[in-house]
Amino acid sequence: LRIASQVQRALLPPPLHHPRLDLAAEFIPAREIGGDYYDVIPLDRGRLAVSLGDVMGKGVPAALLAANLKACLRAHVEAGGDDPGKTIARVNRVFWDVTPKGLFATLFFGVFDFGRGTLRYVNAGHEPSVLVRPSGRPELLDVGGTVLGLFEESTYTAGHAEVAPDDLLVLFSDGLADRTAPSGELYGAGRLREAAVRARRDPVRIALYSLLGEVQGWSGGRPAEDDQTLIVARVR
């Protein structure tokens, strides 16, 4: 399990150095290895793809499927195609073929085109990410379709958001939103998005650890029961 944990960590993308995007990310498995994953994929014309996935379950089975999903998505993205909806539909067909029946994954996949000032994305059954404007106005990124792996033929609609300097994108897995207080009350995605609005002027790494600290404080310091992944990115 230690070796598997080291391999899983090695599969995460290196720190991003991009002229148009500051990005900080953290992956915290509930066990030695986990079923969350995130990836950052440089594309042509200065574009950049960002993904965050969450496979049903925990531990070794979920980690194997998460690695499979990452490889599948990378292969289809790097093969070309400018329609995120069609890309995720192809990924779903492959994932359905290799996934034990009844298991599934949620996924957020987005492509930044800084030349056009756009973010095109697909939310495949994932907790909606949030794009926070400098004014503090949050925009939910909830367009897409169903989870991956349940149905062989699923269609996905690509969402579209305009992006400009100082816009803040926050992606997260439900392991953060589902943390509970000692009373049993869920932290909830709404509180996480409100915390993102409050942290919108902070450097991305400070914002990242501020959000993680708030969730940990809500739980009273108790261990998490699910994998947690958080990405905070600001457009330059």
Low-confidence stretches: none
Order of secondary-structure elements: HEEEHHEEEEEEEHHHE
**Straight-line distance between termini:** 39 Å
The secondary structure category is alpha+beta
Total of DSSP H or I helical runs spanning 4+ residues: 6
Helix content: 25-40%
What is the number of strand segments? 11
Average pLDDT, all residues: 95
Largest sheet: 6 strands, mixed
* Rg for CA atoms: 17 Å
What's the overall geometry? globular
> Strand content of the residues, in percent?
25-35%
What does this entry look like structurally?
It is a single chain. Helices cover 31% and strands 28% of the residues. The chain has 236 residues and is of the alpha+beta class. Strands 2, 3, 4, 5, 8 and 9 form a six-stranded mixed beta sheet that branches. The protein has a five-stranded antiparallel beta sheet with strand order 1-11-10-6-7. Helix 2 (59-78) packs across helix 3.
What's the gist of this structure?
The protein has 6 helices and 11 strands.
Architecture blueprint of SSEs:
Elements: H1 2-11, E1 21-28, E2 36-42, E3 48-55, H2 59-78, H3 84-98, E4 105-113, E5 118-124, E6 129-132, E7 138-141, E8 144-145, E9 159-162, E10 168-172, H4 174-177, H5 189-198, H6 204-218, E11 228-235
Parallel strand pairs: 5-8
Antiparallel strand pairs: 1-11, 2-3, 3-4, 4-5, 5-9, 6-7, 6-10, 10-11
